[in-house]
């Protein structure tokens, strides 16, 4: 019976079972695998070393992270586009045109785009297209004026008429930016400009026509000015006639009104007076409702009323106007004369483009420049569709090349364990202190990463990586899983070879200290104890040194002062015979804290210490003598005591080493990791190794420095 192939095969990597993804068929099965079985479900896009365009396209929500849903969507689209998926398994960046599944429209468009690119490259008979060919076409399209956004900046147009039209549209209607940030115009702005120009020209032609001249401009060239004058005086004249009606009522009722007297400030200040007159009525209201335009009127409006009488009222009323008195009904006739003009002025449209002048607008409307500019915009949009199609084809080729590798660094991590491969999230190979460290990860902030990665239980070194003048420095973290730790510490330098073979300088800037093997784990508590003892001894020694220095300083100062005093006394006394020697003085008792007392205390303390040691050795010797033939009991007791101390220490060290976990290092870098990644013995050997010597070599064990030293000594003895 034939054995059926399983859809999912999980392989054991250091105690973690991970999905095998070796072909396009495995990608197809990935759609049915739930996220808990993925090693990672989210990761920073910056952690992957591959084509940045691919990562940008996969990152659909533009949050600079790659998520499991985005991996699924990319894999689903890739497999839907292809009928023949052998290129995916081969990780090829060359696409066979007949591999596309042209049964649906999107894939057919991709094939048409590929054929068009080959046609433009003068290779119409080719049956395959490469990523490089697609990007060459993209470069050509990107450098052209047509970039697909439908926006035409004036700088890219060589035709002077079209450039002037674009600038005029921008100055009156505004602008939009193209994909490169350059301001220009699009179809909507050009449409709005031409519509405004047509409306404004039509509006002006209504006034300038034969019918419009008599109706819309009854006063000829003075119509605009007289209309403005009427609008200015309109509310004042209307207010006057209202006052006249009130005055007529007051006259009928026998209660004439009285105008309020102006304030003192109005009478004393010119500006106040002008403002007062501007707000005051045109004239004293009359019960008969007549406004004498050239009679006793408000001096602020005298000239304007006289102009209104001569230029507007007289032409409209003719002989019915005596040149001065204006009834309200006559005023309404004057206003009606401006009614067609009011309606025409209110219907004005296209004022945004009026600054260009009527003649220029008429030229644009009658010329072919707008049509040519529309064609230019349409060509840009068409080129944009082609450019967009090339982007889609580029994405397909990138997925065909990288999708398997990306899944093997996200869904599973087999490349991390394979010494013949490098994981996409690794930085390269670090050579330091005569050792090779294979696992190195880029980190954004060494201090923040070390605070989060401390739970990994591993010895970690953080290095600053620098290159040439144009290279931006960055940081890496290196887990140390074996080898020597003696010389590894802050300031240690090494060399990093990245995945492309480029060489970088490194310098250790931070260390997270943890044991790397059982021997160091057992010794760690004793090292800490020794460190505490050494620290305490150092503090005691430092205190004793300070006290001794103080005593020496005081003694030296006293001796120096006494010597100076004795010299001065000798110089003052006359020379005479020396007196007989005085008897030796009785020594004074030592003062506490004095120099001689301290020396005595040190001597006594040393004697007591030696006495204690002697007593201890004597007791041990006496005990051994009493045991006589039972000396082995001593060995048993020593062994038992040693076991009591060592067994718990060994057990704690063993379980601490067993808890070391690589996933904590990735999580500190922003990964969401499902599966634990314990540091097994085999994995530890893969990550740190000693360099292998050449196949053919020989060591000369003779120490040449001895010969050099002997030669120096011989030369020194010569005269």
Q: Radius of gyration over alpha carbons?
A: 51 Å
By helix and strand content, what is the structural category? alpha+beta
Q: How many H/I helical runs? A: 25
The residue fraction in helices comes out at 40-55%
Mean pLDDT: 81
- Intertermini distance: 98 Å
What portion of residues belong to β-strands?
Answer: 5-15%
The profile of the biggest β sheet is: 8 strands, antiparallel
Number of strands: 19
Strand order, sheet with most strands:
13-15-14-17-16-11-12-19
Account of the protein in words:
- With 719 residues, the protein is of the alpha+beta class.
- Among the domains are: 14-146 and 385-416, no CATH class; 219-337, no CATH class; 426-514 and 660-689, no CATH class.
- 54% of the residues lie in helices and 11% in strands.
- The strands form six sheets. It has an eight-stranded antiparallel β-sheet with strand order 13-15-14-17-16-11-12-19. Strands 4-3-18 form a three-stranded antiparallel β-sheet.
- Strand 11 (428-432) and strand 12 (435-437) form a beta hairpin.
- Helix 3 (68-81) crosses helix 17, helix 13 (302-317) crosses helix 14 (328-337) and helix 20 packs across helix 22 (632-658).
- 23% of the residues are buried.
- Mean pLDDT is 81; it is low at 590-596.
């Amino acid at each position: 019976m034939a054995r059926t192939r399983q859809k999912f095969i999980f392989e054991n990597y250091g105690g973690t079972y991970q999905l095998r993804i070796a072909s396009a068929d495995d990608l197809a099965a990935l759609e049915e695998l739930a996220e808990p079985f993925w090693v990672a479900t989210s990761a920073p896009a910056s952690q992957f070393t591959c084509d940045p365009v691919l990562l940008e396209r996969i990152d659909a929500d533009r949050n600079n992270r790659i998520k499991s849903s985005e991996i699924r969507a990319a894999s689903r689209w890739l497999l839907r586009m292809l009928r023949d998926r052998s290129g995916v398994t081969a990780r090829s960046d060359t696409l066979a045109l007949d591999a596309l599944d042209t049964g649906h429209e999107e894939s057919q468009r991709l094939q048409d785009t590929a054929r068009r690119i080959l046609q433009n490259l003068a290779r119409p008979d080719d049956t395959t297209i490469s990523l490089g060919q697609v990007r060459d076409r993209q470069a050509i399209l990107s450098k052209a004026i047509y970039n697909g956004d439908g926006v035409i900046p004036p700088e890219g147009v060589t035709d002077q008429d079209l450039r002037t039209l674009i600038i005029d549209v921008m100055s009156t209607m505004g602008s939009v930016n193209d994909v490169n940030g350059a301001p220009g115009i699009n179809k909507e702005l050009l449409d709005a400009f031409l519509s405004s120009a047509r409306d404004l020209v039509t509006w002006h032609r209504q006034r300038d026509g034969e019918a419009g001249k008599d109706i819309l401009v009854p006063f000829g060239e003075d119509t605009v000015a007289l209309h403005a004058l009427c609008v200015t005086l309109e509310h004042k004249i209307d207010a006057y006639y209202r006052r006249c009606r009130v005055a007529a009522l007051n006259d009928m009722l026998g209660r004439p009104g009285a105008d309020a007297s102006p304030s003192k400030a109005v009478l004393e200040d010119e500006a106040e007076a002008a403002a007062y007159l501007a707000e005051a009525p045109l004239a004293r209201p009359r019960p008969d409702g007549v406004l004498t335009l050239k009679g006793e009127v408000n001096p602020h409006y005298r000239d304007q009323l006289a102009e209104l009488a001569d230029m507007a009222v007289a032409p409209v009323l003719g002989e019915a106007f005596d040149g001065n008195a204006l009834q309200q009904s006559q005023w309404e006739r004057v206003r009606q004369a401006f009614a067609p003009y009011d309606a025409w002025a209110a219907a004005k449209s296209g004022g945004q483009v009026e600054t260009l002048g009527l003649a220029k607008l008429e030229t644009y409307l009658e010329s072919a420049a707008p049509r040519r500019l529309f064609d230019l915009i349409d060509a840009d949009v068409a080129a944009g569709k082609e450019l967009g199609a090339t982007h889609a084809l580029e994405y397909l080729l990138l997925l065909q090349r990288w999708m398997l590798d990306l899944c093997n660094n996200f869904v599973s991590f087999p490349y991390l364990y394979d010494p013949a491969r490098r994981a996409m999230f690794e930085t390269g190979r670090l050579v330091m202190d005569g050792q090779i460290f294979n696992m190195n990860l880029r980190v954004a902030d060494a201090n923040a990463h070390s605070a989060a990665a401390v739970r990994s239980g591993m010895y970690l070194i953080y290095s600053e990586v620098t290159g040439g003048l144009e290279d931006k420095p960055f940081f890496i973290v290196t887990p140390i899983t074996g080898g020597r730790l003696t010389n590894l510490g802050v300031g240690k330098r090494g060399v990093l070879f990245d995945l492309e073979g480029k060489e970088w300088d490194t310098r250790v800037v931070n260390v997270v200290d943890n044991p790397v093997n059982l021997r160091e784990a057992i010794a760690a508590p004793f090292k800490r104890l020794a460190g505490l003892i050494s620290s305490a001894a150092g503090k005691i020694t430092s205190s004793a040194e300070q006290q001794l220095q103080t005593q020496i300083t005081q003694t030296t100062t006293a001796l120096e002062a006494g010597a100076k005093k004795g010299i001065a006394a000798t110089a003052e006394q006359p020379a005479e015979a020396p007196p007989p020697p005085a008897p030796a003085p009785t020594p004074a008792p030592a003062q506490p804290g004095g120099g001689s007392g301290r020396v005595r205390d040190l001597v006594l303390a040393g004697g007591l210490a030696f006495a204690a040691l002697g007593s201890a050795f004597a007791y041990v010797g006496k005990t051994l003598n009493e045991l006589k033939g039972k000396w082995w009991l001593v060995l048993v007791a020593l062994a038992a005591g040693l076991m009591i101390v060592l067994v718990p220490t060994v057990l704690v060290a063993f379980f601490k080493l067993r808890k070391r976990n690589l996933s904590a290092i990735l999580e500190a870098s922003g990964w969401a990791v499902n599966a634990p990644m314990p540091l097994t013995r085999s994995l530890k050997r893969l990550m740190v190794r000693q360099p292998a010597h050449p196949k053919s070599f020989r060591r000369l064990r003779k120490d040449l420095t001895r010969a050099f030293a002997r030669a120096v000594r011989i030369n020194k003895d010569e005269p």
